[in-house]
Hints:
- By secondary structure, the chain is α/β, with parallel strands linked by helices.
- The chain folds into two domains: 5-95 and 249-256, 2-Layer Sandwich (Nucleotidyltransferase, domain 5), CATH 3.30.420.40; 107-244, ATPase, nucleotide binding domain (Nucleotidyltransferase, domain 5), CATH 3.30.420.40.
- The chain has seven helices and ten strands.
- The chain has a five-stranded mixed beta sheet with strand order 3-2-1-4-5, with helices on both faces. Strands 8-7-6-9-10 form a five-stranded mixed beta sheet, sandwiched between helices.
- Strand 4, helix 2 (74-85) and strand 5 form a beta-alpha-beta unit.
- Helix 1 (40-54) packs across helix 2 and helix 3 packs across helix 7 (245-256).
- The longest helix has 28 residues, at 187-214.
- It is globular.
- The two termini are 37 Å apart.
Amino acid sequence: MKSTLVLTIDIGNSQTAIGVYKNAKIEASYRLTTNDKTTSDEIFFRINDLAKHFGRKSKEITHIGLSSVVPQLVRPWIKALNAYFNKQIQIVSAKNCLDLPIAYPRPGSVGPDRLSNVIALRSLGLSNGIVVDMGTATTFDVLHNGGFAGGLIVPGISTSMDTLTEKAAMLLPVPIKWTNRFVAKNTADAMRAGILYGFLGQLDFLVNSIKKEIGMEDIPVIATGGWGRMLLKRTSIVRRYDPYLTLEGIRQVAIHGNGFNNSEMEE
Length: 267
């Protein structure tokens, strides 16, 4: 099989994750702050800086995959990537998800990050599984009988903290970290315990409810996203944590996608 060097980009609401894969192994990863007002020129120079840091020439990249949950950033990213690499770009969407069955009346309404997660599960040889992606939002996505069965979307941990401190005048932002007790003795720990232990309870309840609804108790649960590692040791319901799961799904589409490309899109 011919060697591949794949650039994957996952544009999230808060951060943009970038991964470079040599064949199936990730060689480098980066995180950038997502700015929904950034221009294609700014993106071009950021790509140039990262390429210099990684030490690869543009012509060495064989495939490019892009997923974005920020619609207004798709055009500038496509324009910058085309200008820098001059290669076809595979965009993850319901039209370009490797024939993944989608149990939605409107498949196009499913976020590409969610599709990428389920595609990654399927690439592991699984027909059934649950992905819990813990970022700005926390998504629970279900792979059932080889297709995207649906799932849940709830506020993420940091989003919950932001909302709490924004709406309650007497509550100030605090670093999110574990406390050793449920009956907190100060306001900061009360907020931390409520958000983190509350999320653990939510996690267990929702995953167990999903298992019951689809009639599968023995189904693997994999976590990803920025908060996943922090929660992994506190719950037995998650089988493992994979920080690159979404990027792996994007890599699969980058290599095997159907050619859907917005190379002519303008800002």
